[in-house]
Design a protein that fits this description.
The chain has 140 residues and is mainly alpha-helical. The protein is built from seven helices and no strands.
């Protein structure tokens, strides 16, 4: 299989997974959304939700960025899945978990933005969305 075919299939699969996650969240099937995210993190990157929760933000960013993929596709996918996990936790009313995941996704997106050497509107949009989400954090 050529690398072009692999990349095309990879993004098609990711698109389907993200659509399913959003659909689960819209239907208030939060556990299914959480499982779908966990499954993708595990299958693609040998990570899971518990590992993400256990790691400090910078530790996770270092782990994710340790193996640089061409054009940072893998790293961006991990950040996107963590972002989706944050939105799922927010919808579930689990604010602390949502903010933790949002901070971690933001750190990864920031690192990608700083290191990739190209401008990505998608990354900029995610950074803005995550900053807005984190700005909503209730004061303790």
């Amino acid at each position: 299989m050529s690398s072009k075919d692999f990349i095309t299939r990879y993004f098609e699969q990711l698109g389907k997974v993200l659509a399913a996650i959003i659909g689960f969240r819209e239907n208030k099937e939060y556990e299914l959304a959480e499982k779908a995210i966990d499954q993708q993190l595990n299958e693609l990157f040998h990570l899971n939700n518990n590992q993400i929760a256990a790691l400090q933000t910078e530790e996770l960013a270092e782990l994710v960025l340790k193996k640089k993929s061409k054009a940072y596709d893998a790293e961006q996918t991990i950040a996107e899945l963590i972002y989706q996990l944050s939105l799922t936790y927010e919808a579930m009313g689990q604010t602390e978990k949502a903010m933790d995941c949002a901070g971690k996704a933001l750190a990864i997106f920031h690192h990608i933005d700083e290191q990739c050497g190209f401008f990505s509107l998608e990354i900029q949009e995610r950074i803005t969305s995550l900053k807005q989400l984190l700005a909503q954090k209730p004061n303790n």
